């Protein structure tokens, strides 16, 4: 099973002092839980590309994160990928020419900086 066209993925984020690692998927008017991410976080960047869902950075109520995880719908599992160089949350995220761009975000010193990760056959490598 690959990512379904029209599916919506919802990352719970935070509520009060709690952060969550749970993800729900909506297809044909029905929500279902998928495998949980390895780490709960809020302010996360999420993007679907090449049959995977990438969860990038975020905040775990203690620190900003640089971790990257990729969801594989074939195995209903998450894999830890190469981390970003800098920790960040609440940023813009896009894929252009097989590169994942992470722009701005927190902490505030990152507002004018970008991280670029090269996407290669489902794996991330820093560029």
UniProtKB/TrEMBL annotation:
InterPro entries: Kelch-typ_b-propeller, Kelch_1. It holds the Pfam family Kelch_1. SUPFAM superfamilies: Kelch motif (SSF117281). Gene3D superfamilies: Kelch-type beta propeller. Keywords: Kelch repeat, Repeat. It comes from the Eukaryota. The keyword Repeat applies. This is Kelch-like protein 10. It comes from Channa argus (Northern snakehead).
């Amino acid at each position: 099973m690959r990512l379904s066209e029209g599916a919506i993925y919802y990352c719970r984020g935070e509520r009060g002092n709690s952060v969550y690692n749970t993800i729900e998927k909506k297809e044909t008017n029905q929500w279902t839980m998928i495998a949980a991410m390895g780490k709960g976080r809020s302010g996360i960047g999420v993007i679907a590309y090449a049959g995977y869902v990438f969860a990038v950075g975020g905040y775990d109520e203690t620190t900003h994160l640089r971790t990257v995880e990729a969801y594989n719908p074939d195995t209903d599992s998450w894999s830890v990928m190469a981390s970003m160089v800098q920790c960040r949350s609440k940023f813009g995220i896009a894929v252009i020419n097989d590169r994942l761009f992470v722009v701005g975000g927190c902490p505030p010193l990152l507002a004018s900086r970008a991280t670029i990760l090269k996407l290669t056959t489902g794996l991330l490598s820093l560029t």
